[in-house]
Write a structure and sequence with these properties.
Blueprint lengths: L20 H14 L5 E3 L10 H11 L14 H15 L9 E4 L2 H12 L5 E6 L3 H9 L3 E6 L10 H6 L5 E6 L12 H14 L2 E5 L23 E6 L12 E4 L2 H11 L8 H11 L3 H24 L12 E5 L7 H12 L1 E5 L10 E5 L4 H20 L1
Parallel strand pairs: 1-10, 3-4, 3-5, 5-6, 6-7
Antiparallel strand pairs: 2-8, 7-8, 9-11, 10-11
The chain binds pyridoxal-5'-phosphate (PLP).
């Protein structure tokens, strides 16, 4: 029986916003697993390795104290803010005032929404990368803004074509999302690219939102867009402990930038949540203090896995660059497949391996697939064997 009003519908702002692709696909994979298929999931970028033992110990020790269970400051604990500031100084050579230029977040994904809700009114335009992280697009739409795609092409090293962008009408553009190392293409930034991005933001008075969760993964020179001279006047940067500290489920991220921007975003955010569990913040601070050995160890594992992924991709006849950073390998599908969706379905239904079709990151990704490195070498070897049997079976037909 439906007790609600007959015209009860979801809000207009949800129109065109579907359920997140992975949330749907994971349900389908669950179903297939219930049928006994034992799908190897190479879709999502959720690190399968644990955080450093000291980080876990900090959480355990701190959470056993009696006085840490209350609401916390909206601005985050001083300990975490200082750790973020020290991390930016040590690894990115960027100075941030721990008190005013840093805002801890409950994961960087929520930060994307907060930024959109803070700055966008109906009809305001936002430049979003195609292909790019789907959340930029949905957050802009939910906040009432309008997405203006800028295409990232392989032949341009997946860099924005600024000449083309300059020809567009940019008066209504308030924000531009950029993300390097880029997800899903794995493209690393150059110093020159970062300088061009900042120059573009300054020239057109656009707030550049740099999303930087992958800078430590398979990359030994992490870079921040805030390092560019004059960047703080037009850039804010999102960062995360999800990938580089293996803490995706802990939900810890950060927003960094000029005091004015941090205060503006906090005006919105402080109405949305009531701070983060203190022991999680203290453990996150511990994680940010980890040294070179930690990143080296994480990357040695990913480098080994990536070699296996290259083998799978070669077997499937895909084309890819070996110079990619981040938790995935991005590859072009062979012409016998119409697009990445067709390859993904073929491999899922005929060899029980799930690979993400590139089209979910935007139309410019349609001819590509993205393979996650968040599976053990053993699982990746099994995926290789399953793909090899699929190819053999097809040859025999
Ligand atoms: C490009 C990009 N930005 C942001 C996020 C969100 O990360 P977090 O776990 O910090 O919310 C992801 C997660 O997959 C991502 O790929």
């Amino acid at each position: 029986m439906n007790l609600l009003k007959a015209d009860m519908k979801t809000s207009k702002r949800l129109e065109g916003i579907g359920e997140y692709y992975f949330s749907q696909k994971l349900r389908e994979i669950d179903e297939l697993n219930k049928q006994g298929k034992q799908i190897i999931n190479l879709g999502i970028g959720s690190p399968d390795l644990p955080p450093h033992p000291e980080v876990i110990r900090t959480l355990q020790d701190e959470s056993s104290k009696p006085n840490v269970h209350g609401y916390q400051s909206y601005k985050g604990s001083v300990v975490l803010r200082k750790a973020i500031s020290a991390w930016y100084r040590e690894w990115y050579n960027v100075e941030l005032d721990a008190d005013s230029e840093v805002l801890p977040l409950i994961g960087s994904k929520e930060g994307i929404m907060h930024v959109c809700m803070t700055y966008l009114d109906k009809g305001d335009e936002v430049l979003v990368p195609n292909p790019g992280y789907p959340t930029y697009r949905s957050a802009v739409k939910l906040a009432g803004g309008k997405c203006i795609d800028y295409n990232l092409k392989e032949k341009n090293n997946y860099e924005p074509d600024f000449e083309k962008l300059e020809k567009k009408k940019l008066e209504k553009v308030k924000l531009m999302f950029v993300n390097y190392p880029q997800m899903p293409t794995g493209q690393l930034p150059s110093k020159d690219l970062f300088e061009r991005i900042v120059a573009f933001g300054r020239k057109h008075k656009i707030l550049i939102v740099h999303d930087n969760p992958y800078s430590f993964i398979l990359n030994d020179r992490p870079m921040s867009l805030l390092h560019v001279e004059g960047a703080k006047e037009c850039v804010i940067e999102l960062n995360s402990l999800s990938k580089s500290q293996n803490m995706a489920g802990w939900r810890v991220g950060m927003l960094c930038g000029a005091k004015e921007r941090i205060d503006e975003v906090l005006r919105f955010k402080s109405n949305m949540d009531s701070g983060m569990f203190l022991p999680v913040q203290l453990a996150a601070a511990r994680a940010l203090g980890l040294g070179k050995d930690w990143y080296q160890q994480v990357n040695n594992e990913y480098a080994e896995r990536r070699e296996k992924v290259f083998e799978v991709l070669n077997l499937l006849n895909c084309k890819f660059s070996k110079d990619q950073a981040g938790l995935f390998v991005w590859a072009r599908v062979p012409s016998k497949y119409k697009n990445g969706y067709e390859l993904s379905d073929d491999v899922l239904y005929n060899s029980n391996v799930f690979i993400t079709p590139g089209g979910i990151f935007g139309s410019a990704g349609e001819k590509y697939i993205r393979v996650s490195l968040c599976a053990t070498v053993q699982k990746l070897t099994e995926a290789f064997e399953r793909a090899a049997s699929l190819i053999l079976a097809k040859e025999e037909i």
